[in-house]
Amino acid sequence: MQIGFYEKKLSIFGVNSKLFTTQPTPLKLAILILNWNGKTLLKRFLPSVIEHSAKHDIYVVDNASEDGSVEFVISNFPEVKCVKLDKNYGYAGGYNKAVKQIDADIYCLLNSDVRVTKHWINPVLKQFETHLNIGVIQPKILDENAPKAFEYAGAAGGFIDQLGYPYCRGRLFNHLENDLGQYNQSRSIFWASGACFFVRQSLFNRLNGFDELFFAHMEEIDFCWRAQNIGEAVWFTPESTVYHVGGASLNAIHSKKTFFNFRNSLFTLTKNTPQPLVVVILLRLILDGVAGLRFLIAAKPKHTLAVIKAHFSYYITLPKLLKFRCRNTTRKNYSGVFSIVWCHYIQGTKTFSKLKKH
């Protein structure tokens, strides 16, 4: 009412009251591309980021590469800024250290093996501007090598079962769906992929960034779970599309990836599950044992050993994880199925849309 009164007064004197209307300040976005010996990937994918992100600051965050990556960026892409770190801090530590040096309202944490598309940013910023409760957003992630298919790392948004196994709209374990528009709904998800991860600076700082115990893999799931524990929403925006190669830094056949995936899944569960922890971990011990045997039968002994090492590393780190769990007692109950292993391997469910829950 008071605003209307002054608008009438201004119009009497021939002043356009719209000149005095406060416009929302546009959100400042910074794009951070983590790099470790990825000169070839930067040469291939950085041009698309520059082409379709001209209004925004772009940074290459270098984890002490030895392949001349930084020199290559400086020589060929002067519009891109470089943040040079003194050693390889992994995904979690690399981004944590970089954001302390970069001021922005929204960070886009982007893998170096991602090709972005025209208008990939505007739909995301619009969601952040419209819905203040959204803290994290993921675009649609398709496969660079099979453009009609969803990509393993994030597809159309992530979920997690009650035993800690992640899956996606568009991907259950290694079964990938084609993008037929079946997941073209803007909606809440449980976790957003670290391949293309938009996050508010305020939330990132409030949660003290990623947990550096993870080093690499699944730290984004832990972050999203912690974000929801404090009331922040995680969102999928299908109007934005990117294409991801996947596994460029550590591919699926590498036993180190098996180690990180199994160990970090246990880390995430221990910190965040609202279920009785002892029961959940015992069930995981059985299922992980079965997975180790499957690797052995498939003549992949290094992966079996990686599962065993993952558990020993978990037990060594358990006191730190329990300390976090005791300090943070608010834990969101996930909306996922009880066991995606059961649904996929026993019941034969191949697509997310066929899952009874969600």
Characterization of this structure:
It is globular, with a radius of gyration of 22 Å. It has two domains: 216 residues, Spore Coat Polysaccharide Biosynthesis Protein SpsA, Chain A (Alpha-Beta Complex); 100 residues, no CATH class. Helix 9 runs antiparallel to helix 10. The chain is an alpha/beta fold. The relative contact order is 0.12. The chain is built from eleven helices and 14 strands. The two termini are 44 Å apart. The strands form three sheets. Strands 1, 2, 3, 4, 5, 6, 7, 12, 13 and 14 form a ten-stranded mixed beta sheet that branches. The chain has a two-stranded antiparallel ribbon with strand order 8-9. Strand 10 and strand 11 form a beta hairpin. 40% of the residues lie in helices and 20% in strands.
Question: SSE layout and pairings?
Answer:
Layout: H1 2-12, E1 29-35, H2 39-52, E2 57-62, H3 69-76, E3 81-84, H4 90-99, E4 106-111, E5 114-116, H5 122-130, E6 134-143, E7 146-150, E8 158-160, E9 166-168, E10 171-172, E11 175-176, E12 187-188, E13 196-200, H6 201-206, H7 219-229, E14 233-244, H8 255-272, H9 277-297, H10 301-327, H11 340-346
Parallel strand pairs: 1-2, 1-4, 2-3, 6-14
Antiparallel strand pairs: 4-13, 5-14, 6-7, 6-13, 8-9, 10-11, 12-14
Short description:
40% of the residues lie in helices and 20% in strands. It has helices spanning 2-12, 39-52, 69-76, 90-99, 122-130, 201-206, 219-229, 255-272, 277-297, 301-327, 340-346; strands at residues 29-35, 57-62, 81-84, 106-111, 114-116, 134-143, 146-150, 158-160, 166-168, 171-172, 175-176, 187-188, 196-200, 233-244. A hairpin with a 5-residue loop joins β8 (158-160) and β9.
